[in-house]
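Appendix B, record 7
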Amino acid sequence: MQIPDAAQWSTSFNVDRATQAWLDTVAGAQRLQSNAYFEGGYWLLLIWVLSLPLSIYQGYFREHHYGLANQSFLPWFAEQGISLALLLVFGSVFIALLYAVVRRTGERWWAWGAGLVTLFVLLSIVIAPVFVLPLFNDYRPLPPGETRDSILSLARANGIPAGNVYVFDASKQTTRISANVAGALGTTRIALNDNLLNHTSLPEIRAVMAHEMGHFVLHHIWRSVIYLGVLTVFALLLLHWTFVWLLQRWGARLGIKDRADVAGLPLAFASVAMRLSSYRKLTPGALEELLMYDHPSGRTRVHMAMQWLKENPPAASAVTAVPAPAPPP
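Structure tokens (predicted):
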């Protein structure tokens, strides 16, 4: 490791100069790339904030007005926070991978991009019952009995690969009744909410479950994946054809070089800006670091390290006091 001169211990060691020397080792295009990647996440957060008033009205006040919601505001808002976290994590990964595809596949990026979208949709279907839905509700096996046996009998009769039935506590959120057959490729799960279980009769439960199983038997999940994939092909192909015109008209003004330049994403989708190298902005403002960082920024980490170095100098280089020369006789 090459230690910058200003960051090496000396009798004139200065914490701030040493910190800046380390930060200067990441400069130019590399710094711009890491900043763009990290700041791109702000677009996802801003989109969520802008849509929040409508989400609050639609998901909370309107549901309560019509007697369809049971949840108080703070638990409801906490679940919106979970949704935001999922959006930031999976959205950031998706955008990064999409631009990797754009850079590597050239003129055929639209076809590969559509494949990536389809793959992400399929992945979400597979992981949702096991990893996502339990973040919002408690899923427990339905106790043995007539209801469970009847639902499993329907499943066996229709070739649904599920050996258990789950009930989830939707009553903490809503008065609605619901059920679903979710998952694919080994994660298929039959579930009904506790409102359906506790407030309807067995024939009604069977009717609802038969409807949900019908979606599975008729391959509606796979049809949706295919339809979305085809639609994405046409959407990205249209973007491919029009982006050249957009680039010629506004590219120079906005500093966008080509379709692989991530700065073009707000132009095309008004969405996110991501980079694929370092993922942390090194030198945020104080408020930016407070609001946007869950760990200390690079500058803060380096500054703490340099402060520690100042207070704990290397033993071999420790400065010893030199006695003042004796006064002349």
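Remarks on this record: Residues 35-113+225-309 form one domain. Residues 28-65 form the longest helix (38 residues).
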